[in-house]
Amino acid sequence: MIHVEPVPEPTDFDQQCRQRGQRWLAEHPHAKRPQDFWTPFKSYLADGFGDLCAYSAMYEPVGTVDHFFSCKNRLELAYEWSNYRYSAAWINSSKNTADGMILDPFEIGDNWFEIILPSLQLVVSRGVPEDMQEIAQYTLRRLHLVDDERVIRQRREWYRMYQQGRIDLEGLHEKAPLIARAIEKQRLQENHT
Fold first, then answer.
1. pLDDT over 90 (residue 110)
2. For a surface tag, which of 85, 130, 139, 152 has the fewest beta carbons within 10 Å of its beta carbon?
């Protein structure tokens, strides 16, 4: 995970999603799942996140709109732009209804997590404040970000492309910034030995 700045709300979001959604909720008070009026704004959200999954911090070409506070627990936020994060679908599903137990990419520090080379595991760094350590560890476990094969395969591919010269460090910063930082840290350590 890396810090992400909130994405400005699109100009037509209020009319096309929020207002339509609120009307739909009023007309369907017992619905189990709200009508999806947010997907037309997915590409705008993805652009705002630099096409990076909010949680894996890697390029995600076919992500989904994650309701940071789930529709099941906080239905009143289903059509609120400030509640949306761009995410890989499988990670969004892993998050499910863990409201209040997962770190928000809008609120974390930029150096709270790091990739360990060569294992490519994601760990909590020393930059996480003491009172946030437990929730940071839980976030990694709940979202399968430490060493799940799905995320390790992605990291391995980005790392391999860099090692083969198919992507430079600048490009890696755009597509997999935590891996780029790990490479820079490793280089720095090698230069000091």
1. no
2. 130
